[in-house]
Amino acid sequence: MDDPAAGEERTLTRAARIQDVARLAEVSTATVSRALANPERVSPEARTRVMEAIAQIGYVPNPAARTLRSQKSRMVLVVLPTLDNVFFSRILRGIEETLFEAGYGMIIGDLDGLPEKEVRFASFMAAGQVDGALLLNGHLVGQSRNGEGRPLKTNVPMVALCEAIPGAEIPQIEVDNRAAAVRMMDYLVALGHRRIAYISGPQDNVLERERFQGYHEGLERAGLALDPDLIFSGDYSLDAGVVVGTKLLNRDERPTAVFSSNDEMAIGLMRTLISGGIRVPGDISVVGFDDIEFAAVVEPPLTTIRQPRRELGRRGAKVLLDLMAGRNRAGRVRLETELVVRGSSGPAPSGPG
Amino acid sequence: MDDPAAGEERTLTRAARIQDVARLAEVSTATVSRALANPERVSPEARTRVMEAIAQIGYVPNPAARTLRSQKSRMVLVVLPTLDNVFFSRILRGIEETLFEAGYGMIIGDLDGLPEKEVRFASFMAAGQVDGALLLNGHLVGQSRNGEGRPLKTNVPMVALCEAIPGAEIPQIEVDNRAAAVRMMDYLVALGHRRIAYISGPQDNVLERERFQGYHEGLERAGLALDPDLIFSGDYSLDAGVVVGTKLLNRDERPTAVFSSNDEMAIGLMRTLISGGIRVPGDISVVGFDDIEFAAVVEPPLTTIRQPRRELGRRGAKVLLDLMAGRNRAGRVRLETELVVRGSSGPAPSGPG
DNA sequence: CTGTTAGCGCCTTCAC
DNA sequence: GTGAAGGCGCTAACAG
Questions:
Q1: Do A83 and B93 touch (CB under 8 A)?
Q2: What's the predicted TM-score (pTM) here?
């Protein structure tokens, strides 16, 4: 039994420090530190004693002290527009698993449309709170806005994910949205469609611009003109699709196909068209983008483009890990997409469109 | 103009330290520190000089040093079963916004079904990496498993969210799942249903157990017996609903209503039943739980129970904030739910069920 | 292979 | 109102 008085000394149960381990194992703190970081550099006996002591008192190294000393936090900041979106949460998962394996933790920066939040996240980087950052928001964090203030000079490695940041000299991992959209257009054109409408997402979204470019290029390849009457704009929500559907129902001349820049809007649109007595794909084909889970279970199942979201996260995290380790792996990575043909698309109706 | 040689000294652009500010403002580091923490304790002149110096060199306090010194990290750990789920991401958003306002950052611990991850997250707490934790996973992190090892003795405040942790002496914020399920059952019974099936989620889920209890209690209130043939088990996925739908299609005697413990399974079920020629709600009523976005746009729209997910996150974060500030706000908070009646449920068919 | 030593950057008494 | 000094817990030189 231990001397009860000794226990009395530390009733507050302060966390064990490296000193405590050293004392118990009868070595110096340096040896404890080494036993943890470079076990091979410590004699087996000492190592065993250290490990036993650690287990006995439940020692866990203090990360703040470690960070302060080593100037490495083993934390990564992930900046994203919103947490509340399946699209991002799937990517996040890929990031998390990769980071975790490498021993890194993840701090989430949800911008949530509030610019002031960005400032604080920028300071995380400036202050060395994180060793690297993954940007899912389409622009550089802490970049001077309107040239006001100095652009945050930070040497923290960053990688841009999903939304390319034009002009930024950091690695970019992205899905080739433009090429995927072109592919979808080729598919629709091959089915005989000539009047193909488009529902866009928010215009300021880099990713959206690429998809629209693909739509445009697809039209050109087919020798079709871009018709402003066939361009609708939405905000990626189900409701936006409903709104477009209502507009279409009130028209005399309808497109034979609608290409929505995401699945939610496509689904909202389909529902509205069908309720309005239009057959999908008999009268109008509807296709989306993303391949969210529900795309396969709506009626009819949605033709769409599958993006490797989890893989996107994994790759981004890997590139960042390399960067943080000093291995330069700059440049741009483009991930392949897949056209998933389901029941919501079919041949263009033969009558006058 | 500055002396170019002076700039030469720090070409590596090391982050500015409090020393640098002090030197530039011609005060001591203590004054800088005070100017930041207790501005009123510093003379206006000194304060101005300090602030100008800070702005000029872009000083940001080093959080590691601050944490080491103050033993407070201003970080909170959020442990959850998986990131890849709308249900959690909505809660997360409520947490994030509340934490952010209070100046706290958020570290995500995605368990992802891997027990070894839990160990690391536990050490985050043991090591003082975080000041508090929000548990969305239904059990205590770092608790000794099977009594092996010592239960992690940590004084880090914790709050349990969404899944109550039986026996744990920490505050719990939750939705009253049982009461909500009872309410749904009352509604179905009032519509004349007597053969009401149930699709459960994973059995080890505390939240699932509460919902099932509600189902059971609802039956009792209506004087109905629990029929094992009417209990199906799933895993909250769309596919699980499809599987149950297929089973029902092959049966002679079907229930007149199915209560699914989440919306995804209900939607998968509905789709399968309808494809199999069964009318919803004409032949069978289908109801869910959660009120995810898609519940309103499937055909027919799904009757379900709405949970205040974001509010759940906010409340949990607030209680934790209180706890960390030393204000004791223990106990249990139950948030109200709402029965959302849509087109997927209706009166029980009159013929023999 | 091991111990001693010197900080990492900050905050906070303690004097003045 | 301000400055000097010590130390939070750890790791990385540097000796031995």
A1: yes
A2: 0.84
